Amino acid sequence: MLDLLQNAVTKASELVNAEFGIADENGVVIACSDGSKINSVSQPAREFLSLKSKTGVSGGYTLQKLYIRNRFEYIVFVKGTGEQFEKYLSLLSMNVLNIRQLTDDRSSRINFLKAVLRGGLAAGDIALNSRLYRITPDSERVVYLVKTEPRSESYACDVLQGMFPNKQKDTVFVIEDEKIALIRELAGSAEGEEVYRVAETIADTLNAELMENVFVGIGPVVSNLRDLSRSYAEADLALTIGMIFDSDKRIKKYDDLGIGRLIYKLPEDACNAFLDEVFKDGSFESLDDETMHTIHSFFKNSLNVSETSRQLFVHRNTLVYRLDKIQKLTGLDLRKFDDAVVFKVAMLVKNYIDSRR
User: If one looks up domain 2-93 in CATH, what number appears?
Assistant: First the structure.
């Protein structure tokens, strides 16, 4: 909001060619056309504080106290005295009040939508507030949840707000540390591919702007405001599960979680028992980085020995030797489909257990 107030005094100064400013309730300048005075104490404002009147003159300045909901908040001032400067100040005061009103309304609207996402409102409260904030209750919407690096969420939020400027249709806000929610209202013809393309655009833009890894979770499209909490919960679950089982994938979609969704629901004791059964005597820990890279490539190439050896730039016999070594250590021959399935599931379960720890 300080940026908006600074913009207001700058525009006023450009129009009238006079110094305009805004001070807080202690007389500290928070916005001024003379940038050198920002964060300093305005002596005319301090002297004006002791006066009971709402408008007055001090030190060659015309000043006015502003009240928000009957509470004293700001002093607006202009360098100059007389009837004309009082009119200038009245116009600035109206502008400041409008900025504060819009900011408060947006903050209240966001708090309402946060409560909707978290499932903390009754149907009657949702209906009442949707009318208050002029939100169409029965439009199709989807929740995107963006995960950033620590302490990057505020800047990422600003970038997203620039990408989605229609604040009546799209709402962006930080919902928790490292996570930003985008509630996007969809056109009637929006398809799943379009929803996914928007997520890709978000990831591409933020990765370029922040120069760091950004991940996007997508919830299901819902047709009314009450179900937004379900879209948010699924987007959050998609991010959580996706980061455990498919951390290289930037876009995590609620209906593309695969076996990870099943494993995530399993009790930890059952997972540990399964790992002890598959990887006896610490056999998994005996696999070095080169061997694990070979295993991942072998799975990626659908257990095809020739294609895997070509991609790894090794002779076919070298790959066969490595697979024999894995079989000797773990008792599982990855060239056999059943053994490969057991090993793959065991790796996913281990990733889950490690993430829990």
Answer: 3.30.450.20
In sequence order, what are the beta bridge partners of 57? 62
C-alpha torsion sign, points 265, 266, 272, 277: negative
The closest of 282, 82, 236, 65 to 144, measured between CA atoms, is 236
Q: How far is CA 271 from the centre of its chain?
A: 32
As beta bridge partners, residue 180 has 146, 174
The pair of structure tokens assigned to 101 is 């009103």
Q: 306: which residues sit within 8 A by CB, 6+ positions away?
A: 316
CA–CA distances in Å: residue 57 to residues 22, 49, 51, 91: 15, 11, 10, 17
Q: Where in the chain is the domain with CATH 1.10.10.2840?
A: 267-356
Radius of gyration of the chain (CA): 30
- CATH 3.30.450.20 segments of the chain: 2-93
Give the residue among 119, 178, 144 at the shortest CA–CA distance from 254. 144
Residue 49: phi and psi, rounded to 5, are -60, -35
Alpha-carbon gap, residue 244 to 148, rounded angstroms: 16
> Is 92 within 8 Å of 8 (Cβ atoms)?
yes
Amino acid letter for position 290: E
Considering the domain 267-356 in this protein, what is its CATH number? 1.10.10.2840
Q: Which amino acid is at 205?
A: T
Q: Is residue 33 helix, strand or coil?
A: coil
- What is the model's pLDDT at position 167? 82
Q: What is the mean pLDDT of the chain?
A: 91
Confidence of residue 29 (pLDDT cuts 50, 70, 90): very high
pTM, whole model, 2 decimals?
0.70
Range 52-57 average pLDDT: 90
Q: Flag the least confident range among 101-105, 120-124, 180-184, 276-280.
A: 101-105
CATH value of 139-260 in 3.30.310.10, 3.30.56.10, 3.40.50.170, 3.30.70.270 = 3.30.70.270
